[in-house]
Amino acid sequence: MLNFKKMKMIKKISKILFIGLFVALTTSCSDQLDIPSEASLDANANLATEDVDKLLTGLYKKMRHPNQYGYFAIMNTEIMGDNYKPVKFQWFQVQNFYENKVPAGDILLSYFYADYYAGIDRANTILKVPSANEAQKGAARYNRALSYLRLYDMFERVPLIDENYDRTPIAPSSKEDVLNFIVEDLKYAKENCVSFNGLSLLESQKTPTKEAASALLARVYRVQGDIAAAGVEAEELITSGKFSLAANPLERDPEVIFMYKGNKAETVGSWGWIMSPEARTWNCFAAADDLTALVKGEDTRKILFDFDGKDANGGYIYSKKYKTEDNSDLLVSRIAEMYLISAEAGNTARLDELQAARKSSLTLAEERRLEMSFEWTRWEDLKLEGKTSYILPYPTRAVDSNPLLK
């Protein structure tokens, strides 16, 4: 008998064979930016607070699960980077991402673009609700900022649409303007979101908070080249006393600032599965050799990799950072990243503190690569280090819908 994973794999393979037909059938529903309208509540009505919360829940779900291939939408920049060692490519589309040679007509590419814009559209819907309170708007703008950051990672220059967008063709903005737009959204979120409450840890970790906005601001300031501003945000979080480095990196509750909580009923957390030997006959990735080589001596992060299973797994070392079940949490921000950013901003004591907790003595760049592996920061690091200048092309479908992308 086929086990559940094998049945799921066959289902996924079958789906990819029919994607072309699906696209043909749904293209007629697209507007100029290829953004499906997915709100079922009237944004112009004075909705009850709980109804706006329902819209927010739908937005969170879209962020965690952009489409039926959400694991690739989530992991695509990790696949494009250098932390993975491919075990098998079942789909040539995945191999194209790994080799940084994605054609404009790639079907996965079209999903990545359109479905992050669908998340932005959901955020804009909430921002148009007259009765939405400032905290709800802050949460929507946090998610809009994160969506644009994902798009920036892939395309850099993208059209900027806000809640006043009239659904007409719009040209892509400059890299600088995209990042500035993200910063303004995060400043608003930091000002208006609820504060992180350590007495309600899980609820705070899965809710956009002031602290979550501050953490993402630190990351974006660093991408902009303003490491001093990034360091200020990082220090605010470190000195808040709300977060701490965990003794066991797999038991990271005290470290998590924000995450999208896994939900087994949705069965969408497969980023852990494709990074495990369970997926070795499908699209599967082990950890890169030069990444695992950074784990030395008594480094506590050794527990994040399956070194003991190397021989049984054909010489591959797999990551254990995420569960292999389809309910893995989606990490967005941890306090460890803030220690690294603060150290980069000149607070060298923070590197010493991180290394004492991790029992490590790597360089700052090496610590960052190992600590943040598989958390969607490596691709930007490679760009900042001048190791890649690759940018994904705009999808053909998006260009057809929005001629100004040409």
Automatic annotation (TrEMBL):
Source organism, top-level taxon: Bacteria
InterPro entries tied to this protein: SusD-like_N, TPR-like_helical_dom_sf
Name assigned to this protein: SusD-like N-terminal domain-containing protein
SusD-like N-terminal domain boundaries: 48-221
